[in-house]
Design brief:
It is a single chain. The protein is an all-alpha fold. 74% of the residues lie in helices and 0% in strands. It is globular and about 80 Å long.
Length: 379
Amino acid sequence: IGPTLGGFVTDTLSWHWVFYINIPLGVLIILLFVLFFPHVRPDRLEHKIDYLGVALLVLATVPTLLALSWGGVEYPWTSAIIIGMFVFSAIMALLFVIVDSRSPEPIIPLWLFKNRVFAVSIPIIFLTGIAMFGTIIFIPLFFQGVLGLSATTSGNFLMPMMLGMVAGSFISGQALSRAGGHYRVQGFIGLAIMALGIGLLSTMTFETSYFLAIFNMVMTGIGLGITMPLYTIAVQNAVPYNVMGVATSATAFFRSIGGCLGLAIFGSVLTNRFASDFIASVPAMAKSVIPNELLVSLARNPQALVSPQAQAQLKAMLASLGEQGQALFEQLIQALRLTLNSALSEVFFIGLLVLVIALIINFFIKEIPLRKQHYFEEE
């Protein structure tokens, strides 16, 4: 029965079920929202949608994201199309500022940046977004490429970090509500823990034990959990009620933009550092057997290290050398792992520097008491 059931599952289920499994969970969340979410209806007012501001914001954001995604991959960073998209985005951003400064109901009221809590929280959220997405994306690559684990096992190793985030969020919310709005102290603690975790991640090697790697990830997750809700609550507590939704969405927007920028920067650093070090570390005998085009392809794509097809191709090329070919294959894989480890350490170290900047900015946040009540008029 066991083998039969296993074969049925293997033949029937595919990678698509990674997405299908979320459907019943999504339906359950919708039902809980409909049944238990408070029915609050503020005064109905006539609003004028800032269509021009929305269009300019999209035109300022999308080309930048495309340039960050294509730069160094599809096109060189100095190519006309990449530079042109950055210039176009800058012009659209300038027009957005001009238009929204005159709009009666702008999509992002620029006067919010006069609020000290908002003006300080947004860059911290932006910087933590850079560090957060970079960490989550590149940790599985470390487990696969450096430690040699499977994709499934590498994904499972993210679970302790996620649990650390949940625990950190719970602690952050309780501490904030009980202490009454000490953003500066609590933000410093959260950012410091996160910086410590990422700093420890930057010291990991292929000799690092699983226990130590999990500890470093949990530390990073706890720091993330403390900081992520903290500054959103600080912003919501500091702005007027009529723009609370705008201010909250602005925090999510800048966190996402920070994540996209972080992935582009970290990915570029990883690729360039890996490419420069890998070719130099390849044994001379291997260079004489393996086509230069394949070596260059491997150097430009660190992900090839975790590809069974790429490893099988390398092994087949070296098989003609017999035992010496097997030894060269192992040396080449070791060189790949050492080079990838060095590049990832640099990526995590840059994340640490980003958090140090966020720590410095955190000292300028203004602490104000948490609001105790919300007043809504009944229709």
